[in-house]
Amino acid sequence: MPFAILFCTLLFSLWFFSVKANIAHVERLTGNGTEQSPLHIEFVSTGFFGYDHHEPTSLSYNAPAVTTGLQRLRQLYPQHRWTSTFITDPQSPSCPFMPGNVYFMLSQWYYSRRNSSRLSIIVTPACTEGSPMNEFAGAHNILLITSAAADLEIRDRQRSPTWLSTTPFASANAVFCSLLNNLNWTTVFASLDSQEKVVMYHAYAFMRVTTKLTDCGVLFTASKTSYSDDASVRQTLGEFNSKSRVFLYFGQPLGLRILLLAATELGMTKGDHAYLAVVPWSSPAFGYFTWQLNADDDEVCI
User: Fold this and answer.
1) How is 149-211 classified by DSSP, letter by letter?
2) Which H helix or E strand runs over 5?
């Protein structure tokens, strides 16, 4: 996670938004000119603690980086005071629960615990809660810096006046919209693996992409299928073939392999159809999308 970039961005943004926030009380005029009073800068990080390997946005992984960054900032700018506050909620033990609770978490901090004499900056990875955090930060004129979450709305300064992100990963909806528009594909079939063990990210990406497709001019059919059931997969392929030629798959690699093997048997891998899948980064939690499993049907999956 690019925390070096995050903190460099933070220092520049600190100067800009300190002016925007009109914190005139930090300066006092003296006979020799203008002298800056010490600032108390508070980093506020929302999230959850836990060592689930497929949720790298956990504060268990990121809090040490924030703490280390603060130590470095204290060395570079000893005239200012640097502190951090970590906000968690027992109702939000993992990423999927954060969007529904983060506004409450921030409101509780802002109205009950925040010290108005401090310059508070929300510095957090964020996974699926970027949009509600952006709404809160923009409404209260608080600088928000995320190192994981991002969204197309971040480019709109009217809707996102204080949100910055250092993430190197584009959101799934941005990737698909850009790709589909560039290829001039205007009709797609989106399918989510409905098995119980599906990683939450795929369900989240499915929701985000299907929500945004219409906005970028793409018509779609949404479907949920158990990819462990061959009859369901074949039925899904039949529906897909009657409505589109572009298939967006959201699920684990094994499900995609089963899909492509069934599509091959039905003659739907000869160039008239396209199959697309999304994975945020290389991790055992998301699986590895590859045709090569040293199995007899490897070449069929190429």
Assistant:
1) ---GGGG-TTT-SSEEE--SSPPHHHHHHHHHHHTT--EEEEEEE--TT--HHHHHHHHHHHH
2) helix 3-20
In which residue ranges of the chain is pLDDT below 70? 1-36, 52-54, 168-170, 196-199, 280-288, 290-295, 297-302
d(CA 121, CA 69): 14
Q: Are 171 and 208 in contact (CB under 8 A)?
A: yes
Give dist(CA 143, CA 154) in Å, integer: 13
Both tokens assigned to 97? 């629960």
pLDDT digits (tens, 9 = 90+) for 154-213: 888 899 999 998 876 667 788 889 899 999 999 999 999 987 565 677 887 888 889 889
Q: Compute the distance between CA of residue 6 and CA of residue 87 in angstroms, rounded to an integer.
A: 20
CB 265 within 8 A of CB 290: no
What pTM did the predictor assign?
0.64
Tokens of residue 240, six digits: 């897909």
The CA dihedral of 125, 111, 136, 199, to the nearest 10 degrees, is 40
Q: What 3-state DSSP class applies to 194?
A: coil
What 3-state class would DSSP assign to 73? helix
